[in-house]
Amino acid sequence: MKLLEDRIKRDGTVLPGEVLKVDNFLNHQVDPQLMYELGGEFKRLFADEGVTRILTVESSGIAPAMMAGLQMNVPVVFARKHRSLTLTDNLYTATVYSYTKQVNNDISIDKRFIKPDDKVLIIDDFLANGQAVQGLLEIAKAANVSVAGVGVVIEKRFQKGHQMVLDQGIHLEALASIASLSDDGVTFASDND
Ligand code: 5GP
Questions:
Q1: Does the predicted model carry a pTM greater than 0.90?
Q2: Helix H segments across 12-160?
Q3: Is the CB of 128 inside a 6 Å radius of any atom of ligand 1?
Q4: pLDDT of 112-169, one tens digit each?
Q5: ipTM (interface pTM)
Q6: What is the CATH number of the domain that holds 56?
Q7: Does the beta carbon of 124 sit less than 6 angstroms from any atom of ligand 1?
Q8: Strand partners, 13
């Protein structure tokens, strides 16, 4: 998506460890108008999938997921992060390793907020090694719901998550796909087309 790629070029910075910092519009300060446009793009890309609910993870997935939910007129549920859970009877849970924070978190969704006939769209801010998305896929499986697809704002295609999602036969869409990150900046997959 050109609008998003332009914004990443303008405001993104590359940190050591192949991390892209976009806290100017996505991860700390949030640009609502841009998020609204991204939500509209997710709606267009998943229009044929019969989405009934959006799942994401707190906190950075919430803004794009909310705008997708607004555009698609479906509820948005964010998994909550905890250090470790004891009482899990009413929850679907999965353990997720955080790429940027390098800690394990349990993520959980209350069973009341996923229904057996749901077709869920998973949305997140970044797809890197795929741990966060995999955790949500595990929750969807435990809840016995079908997965309409995975939509991410930014994927780092050179890391494992992209292929991991495709290998499961899941419809994957990234609004910006990064081929490489270096001291010279960001190269998008579309730059090589
Ligand atoms: P994964 O689970 O796919 O390895 O990583 C996904 C999560 O890690 C995202 O939800 C995001 O919060 C964080 N993350 C991974 N890579 C980056 C990055 O390059 N920049 C930022 N800002 N967050 C990232």
A1: yes
A2: 32-45, 62-72, 131-142
A3: yes
A4: 999 999 999 999 999 999 999 999 999 999 999 999 999 999 999 999 999 999 999 9
A5: 0.97
A6: 3.40.50.2020
A7: yes
A8: 21
